[in-house]
Amino acid sequence: MFLWVVEGVGNFYGLFQLSERGGILAFGRQGLPNFHLVLGDFGKFPGAEHVDFAAWGRARLAGLPVLLENDLRMALLGEAEAGAAKGCDSAVMLALGTGIGCAVLSGGHLLRGARNRAGTLMGHCSVAFDGLVGRCGNPGCAEDQASTAVLAEQARRRPDFSRSRLSQAQSLDYETLFRCADEGDDCSRSLLEHSLRVWASLLLTTVLAYDPEIVIVGGGVMRRQEFVLPVFRAHLNRHLPAIRADIQVVAGKLGDQAALLGCERFAAATRPGVLA
Ligand SMILES: [Zn+2]
To answer: For the chain, N or C: smaller number of CB within 10 Å?
Structure first.
């Protein structure tokens, strides 16, 4: 049974993805969860770090166990179960949107590392060593070079911004950037090209780090997947010729259902004796 639940917990409010089978609940959550606690939310959900979700589950959900995991990890598990990565033991999911998310499946298991962070912070890799020190403290981090969160600021720094179509836009996101680039706006084309180079470079680094069979790309920019995916594949072909033939770079197949399915798989794997 799958449910969508909106629930307030202390001063933390969020939309949870909830899967329930046999008394186990699993939540997909942004940020860096550690099964019951959110370790860091990067400003997305203020107060979440101080919420004990296990206690919340006991108090508000009739004592049912609560598991927390990163939402992109859950989506990757779902895609591995029945979507684009079905049958793959090693897969990576990159989400390009407000920020840059990453999740890694290695040898059939989610890669966690010493602090349950493995892979999730790939978006903070340096791609411009002489870049500005960004919000995370790392100079030239990919997320500060190419994400919706910084797009307007990046556009305003361009010398041709004031005479660009972008300067007339009500809000500046990638949908607007693609549209203005389609209309032949030079500033938009240049900024879009910069973002694509950043993402392609990060994708290549991810391939080098995790050796996946498949990379699933998600996020808002995949509304233009027919344009974005060939750029990424070409980048790998150009710069990783020795292994290029082995790696698929694709869109996800399951959409929002991927994380729900992943939650179910996560819960089943965590308490295999409880669930049928
Ligand atoms: Zn960063």
So the answer is: C
Q: What is the DSSP letter of 41?
A: -
List alpha helices for the chain, DSSP H.
Answer: 53-60, 71-82, 142-145, 148-157, 174-182, 186-210, 225-239, 257-270
Give rounded-to-5 percent helix, strand, coil for the chain.
45, 20, 35
CA of 4 to the centre of ligand 1 (A): 31
pLDDT, one tens digit per residue, over 53-83 is 777 777 877 777 777 788 899 999 999 999 9
CATH topology of domain 86-251: Nucleotidyltransferase; domain 5 (3.30.420)
Low-confidence stretches of the chain (pLDDT < 70) are 1-49, 243-245, 271-276
- CA 74 to centroid of ligand 1, rounded, Å: 22
Average pLDDT, the chain: 83
Dihedral (C-alpha) 201, 203, 209, 211: value to the nearest 10 degrees?
-130
Q: Record the pTM.
A: 0.85
Q: Where in the chain is the domain with CATH 3.30.420.40?
A: 86-251
Distance 153 CA to ligand 1 centre (A): 15
